[in-house]
Amino acid sequence: MLLEIADLHVHYGKIEAIAGISLTVEAGEIVTLIGANGAGKTTTLKTISGLRRPSGGTIRFFGRDITGVAGHQRVRLGLSQAPEGRGIFPGMTVQENLEMGAYARSRRNKSSRLDDMLALFPQLAQRRYQQGGTLSGGEQQMLAIGRALMAEPKLLLLDEPSMGLAPLIVAQIFSILREINESGTTILLVEQNAVQALGLSDRAYVLETGRIVASGRASALLDDPAVRSAYLGAEVPGSVPGPGSTGPDTVPGEVAEEGPPAPADVRDS
Ligand code: ATP
């Protein structure tokens, strides 16, 4: 098992953003966390990459308990995150941005990895000496992914790579993610673009107000009527949820008073 999270709890002050989640990622997989705004997806990723400390539970990577290991050491162990909102350095060139991702590597390693990234992202190669801030949204996302890959992670963590991008660009990014996965990098993805993310993934977990309410093969979740109406309704052609739809009735950021809606019966078999 590459990543194993058991009974994770994360608090912001008194607010429990993650209320005891357990999940696994096996080597070679693409696994997605889907869920509405405020469900806890970003917090989960940040806790895995070491940007936030959990208030309970354990995180194991290659079987080793890394719950107390600092974020920069996790990068050395093979965990690398491309953050939400891209977080590239606008005043640095594309090449300099990429090199920042390989601070833990030797110079020779860095330069051959840079060549790999420029081959993987031809659009970045064309703009190699251009400042990051002048790139389009899609190119900035590619740069953020490329920078995370410079550290040669075993597990790549991605927070909403499709955010704010046109459908054609999203398709391009997702196809690059498939390529990255096929060349041996395991991916844990956070996405609100659930239909496309499930189409790319092996497995997925559905998060709601800090809890996992459904999980399983991505194809099974895509086919499950309860999951479709609750989480994918608006995106599935021909199934526009109307009044009386069984979709989640929580407003983003609001805490549900009762348990999760229907789809809890989808489980790994
Ligand atoms: P989004 O798609 O909007 O990023 P998310 O599923 O990633 O949503 P999180 O950002 O992880 O959700 O937020 C989970 C919960 O924690 C929410 O209720 C949110 O309001 C709360 N939260 C997140 N960051 C903070 C913070 N810095 N301080 C206090 N509460 C926070």
Structural account:
The C terminus is likely disordered. The protein has about 270 residues and is of the alpha/beta class. A 6-stranded mixed β-sheet has the order 6-7-8-3-9-10, with helices on both faces. The protein has a 4-stranded antiparallel β-sheet with strand order 2-1-4-5, covered by helices on one side. It is built from 10 helices and 10 strands. The radius of gyration is 19 Å and the shape is globular. Strand 9 and strand 10 form a beta hairpin. It is about 35% helix and about 25% strand. Adenosine-5'-triphosphate binds next to strand 2 and helix 1.
Which keywords apply here?
269 residues, alpha/beta, 6-stranded mixed β-sheet, 4-stranded antiparallel β-sheet, 10 strands, 23% strand, globular, binds adenosine-5'-triphosphate
Q: How are the SSEs ordered, and which strands pair?
A:
Layout: E1 3-12, E2 15-25, E3 30-34, H1 41-49, E4 56-61, E5 64-65, H2 71-77, E6 79-82, H3 94-100, H4 107-120, H5 122-126, H6 137-149, E7 155-159, H7 167-182, E8 186-191, H8 194-200, E9 203-208, E10 211-217, H9 218-223, H10 225-232
Parallel strand pairs: 3-8, 3-9, 6-7, 7-8
Antiparallel strand pairs: 1-2, 1-4, 4-5, 9-10
Oligomer: single chain
Low-confidence stretches: 234-269
| End-to-end separation | 17 Å
Give helix % range: 25-40%
Hetero compounds: adenosine-5'-triphosphate
Strand content: 15-25%
Note the overall shape. Answer: globular
- Which sequence of strands runs across the widest sheet? 6-7-8-3-9-10
SS element count, helices = 10
The helix/strand series, from N terminus to C terminus, equals: EEEHEEHEHHHHEHEHEEHH
> Mean pLDDT, rounded to whole units?
85
Radius of gyration: 19 Å
Instruction: Compute the number of strand runs.
Output: 10
Tell me about the biggest sheet?
Answer: 6 strands, mixed
**Which class best fits the helix and strand makeup?**
alpha/beta
